[in-house]
Design a protein that fits this description.
222 residues; 9-stranded mixed beta sheet; binds NADP nicotinamide-adenine-dinucleotide phosphate
Length: 222
Amino acid sequence: MKFPTDLKVIINSAMTLDGKLSSYTGNSRISSKKDLVRVHKLRSKVDAIVVGINTVLIDNPMLTVRFIRNNRSCPTRIIIDSYGRIPLDSKILKTAATIKTIIVVTKQASKDTIEKIKELGAHVIIVGSKLVNLKKLFAMLYKMGYRKILIEGGGELNWSCLHDGIVNELIITIAPIVLGGRNAITLVEGRGYSTISQGIKLKLTKIIQNKNDNEITLYYNN
Ligand SMILES: NC(=O)c1ccc[n+]([C@@H]2O[C@H](COP(=O)([O-])OP(=O)(O)OC[C@H]3O[C@@H](n4cnc5c(N)ncnc54)[C@H](OP(=O)(O)O)[C@@H]3O)[C@@H](O)[C@H]2O)c1
């Protein structure tokens, strides 16, 4: 399948100086209020926000646009969730009747699970047999009219999207915090590459310094 060239896919993440997306206990409010506002501005400009199921299980996010004035309707929330593990009482499903929500599962998800998710107003797409087939999914989303998609992690999803070559832009805010923790999730998890030469090479396009909060935001293109 040919990947659409006019589909814009952005990864946005906040990480510590040592590359962690969260502490080993799952704490992930890393960057400043100013950065949070920037992220919500970015959310207001995209058609969909995508996260992995572990992020929903740990953070229970809303994935809506807040902290800014916004006349557009909220972007579609898309959860990558092979087995349909999303809790029926998660904030995402509790608001699925009013904010467009797609739960992307695989053939591993039971019919019963899918029915329960749909009853709460979310749409369900089945793509892939074990893990969600992201290349196929993004091509489907393109056909459905999505042109600008924001991926907000976590580390496993970031790896798959980067490895599959479906990301055009990577935006990373680095906060002046060192967390450590060998079990703390990093910006990119997954299997990884065995040599530096195999690693994904990106071009730095912009640096924004937030002196008050000792933060920088880096913009990279592929
Ligand atoms: N600082 C930040 O900017 C930020 C942003 C987001 C998240 N986080 C943190 O990141 C942590 C969660 O990250 P995580 O790496 O554990 O998990 P994740 O990326 O949120 O979710 C990964 C899960 O998604 C499912 N999945 C299905 N198909 C997949 C595919 N093709 N590729 C990858 N995953 C697929 C898998 O579970 P199934 O097999 O069960 O479907 C997989 O384990 C949380 O602590 C959260 O707070 C931080």
